[in-house]
Fold this sequence. Notes:
The complex is a heterodimer of chains A (about 700) and B (about 400).
Chain A: E1 7-13, E2 17-26, E3 29-39, H1 44-58, H2 60-66, H3 74-80, E4 83-87, E5 93-98, H4 101-113, E6 117-122, H5 128-136, E7 140-147, H6 153-156, H7 159-172, E8 177-182, H8 188-196, H9 206-215, H10 233-254, H11 265-268, H12 271-281, H13 304-309, H14 317-320, H15 331-336, E9 360-363, H16 374-384, H17 390-405, E10 409-414, E11 419-427, E12 433-439, H18 453-462, H19 469-481, H20 489-509, E13 521-525, H21 527-530, H22 534-544, E14 549-556, H23 561-565, H24 570-584, E15 585-593, E16 604-609, E17 614-619, E18 624-627, E19 634-647, E20 649-659, E21 664-668, H25 680-694
Parallel strand pairs in A: 1-4, 5-6, 5-7, 7-8, 8-9, 10-13, 13-14, 15-21
Antiparallel strand pairs in A: 1-2, 2-3, 10-11, 11-12, 14-15, 16-17, 16-19, 18-21, 19-20
Chain B: H1 6-9, H2 14-17, E1 20-23, E2 26-27, E3 30-34, E4 40-41, E5 48-49, E6 54-58, E7 63-69, H3 84-112, H4 122-125, E8 134-138, E9 153-162, E10 165-171, E11 175-178, E12 183-189, E13 193-198, E14 201-204, E15 207-210, E16 213-218, E17 239-242, E18 246-247, H5 249-257, E19 262-268, H6 270-285, E20 294-300, H7 308-316, E21 321-326, E22 329-333, E23 347-350, E24 359-371, E25 375-384, E26 391-394, E27 398-402
Amino acid sequence: MSSQPRAFFALDFGSTTTSVSVLGRVGGRWRLVAHTAAPSYFDVDSMLAGLLAGIGATDPEMLTALNSGDEPDIPVLVSTWPRLVARSTPERQIAIVAGSRRQRRRLETAALRAGWDVVAGSADEDDAVVLSRLILSTKTSAVLFGADHVPGGDEKRHLPDLAALVAGATRSRPELTVVLAGGAAVYESQFAALMESRPEVEAVSEPEEEQLENEIDIPAPEPSADEAPPQTKMLARKVAASQESAFANEASFVKGEAPDEDAPAAEASSAEASSAEMLDAEMPDAEVPAAEMPAAGPRESFSIDETEAGRPPAEDSLASEPAPAAADPDPIATHADTRKPATLPLGFQVSDGPAVATHLLLAPDAEAGQLPGDALQEVLEGLRALPNDSRLGVARSIASLAYVLDRTIEVVEVGMQGGLVARSDPFGQGHFTVASSRSCPTDGSFAPSSPSEEVIDGVLAWSTIPLDRHRAMDRLNDLRLTPWGEADGDGAVFRLAAAKAAFGRLIESMPELAARSMPELVVAAGGIFASLPPSVVALALADLVRRPGVCQLTVDQARILGPIGAIEDEDERRQLLANLADDILMPLGALILPAGVKPGRNAGSLRLKAASSVAEIELHPGAIQVVDLPPGRAARADIDFRDSVRLGKRGHHFTVDVGGGLSGLLVDLRDIPMRISDRPDSRRSALDTWQRGMWPEVDE
Amino acid sequence: MTVVDPSVSAGLPVELARIFGRRVLVFSPTIRFALGPGDRGLVSEGDRVVPGMPIAERTPDASVVDVGRLTSVQNGKSGAADGRDGAHDESTSAWRDSRFDEAEMRSRILRATTMKAPSGPRPERRRPPSPGKWWMGGDERRGKPAKGKPAIRVGGTLLFETEGRWRAAAGERHEVVESPVAGVVVSARNAVEVTIQAVGAAMPGAIAAGEPTRGYLDVPRLTDGELWASALDIGRSGAVVVAGSRLSGQAISRARAMSIRGLIAGSVGEGELRDLEASELRQKASLAPSAPFGLIALDGHSRRPIATPILALLAVLSGREVAIVTDPPLLIFDVAEVPLPELPPDWIRARSGANAGREGRWLRSAGHYRFRGGVYLEAAVVRFVEDTDTTIVPVMDLERFIF
């Protein structure tokens, strides 16, 4: 390869599903060209080859263009195109010890939201044997010992013994990571002596390093909240300005002038060079501050088309020029293995590598942070997750997307090892700042390991097929053993119930969401949603996002938000998402969800005015009604309610702009919160009625 | 789940290679015995173990004991103020008496077979007190002489030291854990774990419960893939019995009552597992120890018959000694060579879905296919053995066997 590739692969290695996508520069901007997903035991290279073969069969000119005009050789492309990789972090267990029950609960909340599998005990509830058992269990990989910043009377007297206990247990298990939170940090000296006698942290072996370098530019640790670029448009402008000056210095380099011959080839693939390539791709926009690039469309509707259509297509002239020599693969690496061409470097600085390996961490107490526990959650997330963890990547991408689209976004991701619920709000003057919060508990998994009775209750509550408790538990456990098994028929119905139950647990893990307004955009992510019909996913979202308002429902069908979240540079991520937002979020439809609809025969009427059609329906309390509105269409809905309802504000008449989707426009006139009979039969019947309306194929 | 091993899939059609390859046998697996506070390993790293050899000692009723002040032992003599180590041998032998002959006999056998004997606790006694170290003591050792009553001896592992005083997780009652397999000790840490690299081949299971156990493999005749609970009689005492497609609570209770060492089945329900766990806890709480009992389910929780290639393999091994281990779930045969059944490469089995448990041959790929519920999945055309017609099945519901 003599030129810079104009495409790359985005790979999401989930614990159950591997998703692969091809992203390429088409028409002057990055586009999602193709994607597929398969069980994680499938061979990735054959998936990529199949994907490229599909592109070649459908549009051979495009494949040639993506290969910089060269005749495509699919095996070579598979091995040389850069890969943007995200991975699910396997479940890890943390043992929490605290002086009091009160403190234990606080620490538990932070650790659960950070995605840890938590076992916990406190000195006022458990004896030293029980607490030691938690720490000495081989499933435990970290210990969180915490106290208030100024320890309270209920915990203070226990702390010296607890510190000795934790220090003692870590002598038996020196591989444990110990986190001292809040007032527990004063016992650091007891652990410092232990740490000195520990063996060095295992380094990544050379072959692994090579492999990582083939996949990414530079393995770098995940930036902490402090290190990450601030999500403000003001600062982004400053960054953009500094980048412009840097860009001026690198312009000759970007335009193909030979770099310093003495410079080692490895430097060519450094982050700066990669950024330069990205800037090259976005050069037509370089004069515009990055923050203003994605002009926000009307906030009432989801219409990225408008935002992108308004922008002139990026010039493609530079991209067609000979690529910088800097991007050529390392000649040494090429000579080392002539059979397999080296992977080209990616145009982004990407997080990758092993999880943080440390043995002693000092952390803030469980009350510190913007929201209580945020600061500790951040530390624990960094400790648990791989730098390119796909779940945290989704959260980062959503924060960037909220900025790009200038919309409030919530994402719900349900996976095998856990789930994620995150919210990002642009706020402040000009919406230059994005506030984000998230929770990724392990029991957000659709099939948690060792499901509790509450988990089974949740599944039964959403199941439309009659199941006894034991049968439900067996099916849930089997779903964990073979997550891709029985994905059709009754299996699909059961998976939907499991996904909804997980969704419910995720919402419960972030109770502050209940007080927030309905987001403008809701994104469903995770393999379990990707495998279900879109209308059913839309119904699941409507069932569980029970806040009055209007929102657009979408699904991350290609599961690409995770890999994009692995891009370290906030600005690069935003630019890429500005290009891709239209492609990666599959619109399911719009949801109108009023609160306070009184029972009766008629709740009012809705008149939907699209560009070429007008539809009018009568609204029925307690029902979920669907109006056809295809994807890509925008419309204006005039709603007249018989009684006063809340839809953002209280009133009788509302006019809202809505976007179309695969399910159309959903008008949900059920109660908020949803009230269904507690009797299993009645509840199942009600759920089944709503479900059949959205999923007629279930009876096939 | 792992990426398909290219060497394993070599020579197969690409579409067939996309079917999940179930590895029926693994060799020299590493198994683990989890320990807790109060438990100690009786072996050390590098030791060779044979089936039945004590490898760990558990303290089922461990509680916190205030040990008092301890000082380092020097020159092999007890330097402790309480002379604790002097009491060690004496008290240890109190619960070792019952096993003495057997242990001595094993030790002789070991010497005869030039195997390295387990190192035992002796070197540990010379170490200064530290968390995890074995400790022995009684009430009188803590300055509370009990007049007219026999001294209560407790033993366990040290936990931590505060202000010069040690605390231990200790109890009166101890249980010896015997190795169900032959192998080499990879690691042994008091209160944490003993891991052993087993010798021989093993069959991975989906679920295991109970305790690691060992017995001769008994493959009775199954009726429609099932074994009636009444077939579990006293004649099968000491056996690991292949019990068909699913284990019932009645079969488990009966097997334990008949001193059967273990059960192998295609599936076991979560309810039965909970019953077994509760029963194990009750058994441990009683003073009468029972023979270890374990079970292994090869497929999962929903009812499925045992796959015929696996059943054939078990039938060939019938009568041989096998072991059930729970971490990870494995059925281990310590035989040098396992006779493998011959299978056509396109032999497949439905592991889930409406056809779960049925076997047949893969014919061709059906591409993306619309299944019930409007779900699109990659599909394959297969012919199940008892059918004349072909069936279209989601590829993800199928498995093929890799030996």
